[in-house]
Design goal:
heterodimer, A: mainly alpha, Rna Polymerase Sigma Factor, Chain: A, Arc Repressor Mutant, subunit A, 9 helices, B: 3 domains, five-stranded antiparallel sheet, 13 strands
């Protein structure tokens, strides 16, 4: 028998990990990211009855998560403390071995301005389509494109000759 | 190259969402009262609190009933459960009065671990204090909360040290012109042509165009350029500026540089015949409005840049001046309500002194800590019924922050709260 919790449990199981990692890249703090994800699911639970399917569940949920992270960033603590957490802390014992170039990419993404980072994370991490990102961020598709272009230009400059891949740039053409 | 998803999932594999824990918090939120249901609440502890006695303590400072009630509630929670002031600051404090009965709740930043404390005052001045996790062996008390704060403070301290040591910030290099494969025009030239088209067709001038970010894309198949102009995402008080400014799309030929089309995404939206002094009411900003936006925005940018990362925010006088610019442009005076002290109002220095005294009395904040603090806000605003001072004081050495409102005419402390930054709400 279904319970009212079932949809939220399903969303947590489907998107919880990816949301947590996205919020971490946005907020640069594990504990804040956990709080942001919990807040996002709580909002989703409270507003579930208003979800009419105008967009996918994922788009709707990502919109909530992005807005929650924005709220967190607006708080004074975030404004006064430019969080630059070290991804080195996040390797699990026995976790997947990674090369140092991986950190370079993540650091470059984490250093993007917030609006551009949102677009990059939704496009390349959550693998959403431009139209879905536009819905999630409540902006025109053209604005999504321009934010992605700006972000790619910055990433290209920072990773030039080392890690930047043209496929990354051409991904949504 | 692996894609960003693979990279992130590999590198951040240590971060995984605990579904069961998340669901417990969801279930707890269903309680209509602010109590958590994970564990049964055992007997509440009855305390006798005479509000009149608290009032007597308020010698020299006039505080609202709400501030008094909060103080007694805080002291009751600290006394009954052994929390210190910093730990109490990890909880969100809410005080509500209904039919003469005050209820103060302290909701944890981590509800599942630290629960909710509730203090209920009856009309006769007696109070009951309770904890939603009463009797639970693994609930977080003073010791666990203090350890959490210490861990987070240490992380912040390390970060500050790293920054002080010159941890490499990412510095954006200036863009350099790049040839585009298969195109005769450069991106810069395409944008220049598009700029001229917007000037000619929509009446843009330099400042207004400067509010947009132009991105040029080349389509090899059709040998056409499309230049998209998106307004910078500046929060323009009534919402993101880009929503009222829309986007401009200019298509041009790569072969001869001829403009093929130029359109505005908000064409058809009523722009009306607004003037310099009324455009704040416009639903969409045309080219002329964008010139006025640019003028005002420059004033804001200059004012905020001047105080960036200083002890003090933008001054009371400067905020009043900036809001007067908005009102003069037709924006709502209720939203842009920063003012300077009126005749008979408590001035800035006196209000600051009241703030310092209040923090010392209510939270034991020493004058030295107060003087070393910075201010997120120090505002005077015109509310519907009164003018009030609002201070947001932050001390990053002790990772604490305080907010308060003071009636500018009577000096009464209307509301007051504190937060530990470790709760993420500083």
């Amino acid at each position: 028998m279904n319970t009212p919790d079932d949809p939220i449990r399903r969303l947590m199981e489907s998107y919880g990990d990816a949301m947590l990692r996205m919020c971490y890249l946005s907020l640069h703090d594990v504990m804040l990211a956990e709080d942001a994800v919990q807040d996002s699911f709580l909002k989703a639970y409270q507003k579930w009855h208003t979800f009419r399917g105008e967009c996918s569940e994922k788009t709707w949920l990502m919109r909530i998560a992005v807005n929650t992270c924005r709220d967190y960033r607006r708080r004074a603590w975030m404004r006064w403390n430019d969080r630059r957490a070290d991804v080195e802390q996040l390797i699990l014992p026995g976790g997947t071995p990674v090369d140092s170039a991986d950190d370079t990419v993540l650091r470059a993404v984490m250093a993007l301005p917030p609006r551009e980072k949102e677009a990059v994370l939704l496009r390349y991490y959550q693998q959403m389509k431009l139209g879905e990102i536009a819905q999630a961020l409540d902006i025109p598709e053209g604005t999504v494109t321009s934010r992605l272009n700006r972000a790619r230009a910055k990433l290209r400059r920072q990773l030039e000759g080392w890690y930047f891949d043209e496929e990354f740039e051409a991904a949504d053409r | 190259m692996r894609n960003l998803k693979q990279l992130t999932d590999d590198r951040l594999s240590a971060l995984s969402w605990d579904v069961e824990k998340g669901m417990r918090a969801i279930r707890a939120s269903r309680c209509s009262e602010p109590l958590r249901i994970r564990r049964p609440m055992i007997a509440a502890v009855a305390l006798v609190m005479a509000l009149a006695a608290a009032t007597a303590l308020a010698v020299g400072l006039q505080v609202s009933r709400k501030v008094e009630v909060k103080r007694i509630a805080r002291e009751a929670v600290m006394a009954q459960y052994g929390l210190d002031n910093k730990s109490v600051g990890m909880f969100s404090e809410q005080a509500e009065e209904e039919s003469g009965v005050w209820t103060v709740t302290y909701s944890a930043w981590k509800p599942d671990e630290a629960g909710t404390y509730t203090v209920t005052f009856q009309k006769d001045g007696t109070a009951q204090v309770s904890w939603s996790l009463e009797g639970s062996a693994d609930a977080w008390g003073q010791q666990e909360i203090a350890a959490y704060i210490a861990q987070k403070d240490a992380a912040v301290h390390e970060m500050q040290l790293a920054e002080a040591a010159g941890a490499a910030p990412v510095i954006e290099a200036a863009p350099t012109p790049e040839p585009v494969s298969g195109a005769l025009l450069t991106r810069e030239k395409a944008i220049k042509v598009a700029d001229e088209a917007l000037r000619a067709q929509f009446g843009f001038q330099t400042a207004g165009l400067g509010e947009f970010d132009a991105v040029a894309k080349f389509d090899r198949t059709s040998s056409k350029w499309t230049v998209v102009y998106s307004a910078f995402g500046w929060h323009w008080h009534d919402g993101d500026l880009s929503q009222k400014a829309g986007e401009y799309h200019v298509e041009l030929s790569d072969v001869n540089g001829q403009v093929l089309s130029a359109r505005w995404t908000l064409e058809g939206v009523e722009t009306g015949s607004f003037t310099r002094s009324t455009f704040g009411q416009a639903k969409a900003y045309d080219a002329q409005c964008m010139e006025w936006v640019a003028e005002i925005r420059a004033q804001f940018v200059q004012a905020y840049a001047a105080v960036e990362m200083s002890k003090w925010p933008v001054s009371v006088e400067e905020k009043a001046r900036l809001d007067s610019l908005m009102i003069a442009a037709g924006f709502d005076a209720e939203k842009f309500n920063h003012v300077t002290p009126d005749k008979g109002d408590i001035g800035f220095e006196a209000a600051l002194e009241l703030a310092a005294q209040t923090l010392e009395r209510e939270y034991g904040v020493s004058r030295a800590i107060f003087d070393a603090s910075s201010f997120g806000y120090a505002d005077l605003t015109q509310e519907k019924t009164h003018r009030q001072w609002y201070f947001w004081v932050q001390n990053h050495d002790i990772q604490m922050g305080w907010q308060m409102t003071i009636d500018a005419q009577t000096g009464e402390i209307l509301d007051l709260s504190q937060e530990s930054f470790a709760a993420g709400n500083g």
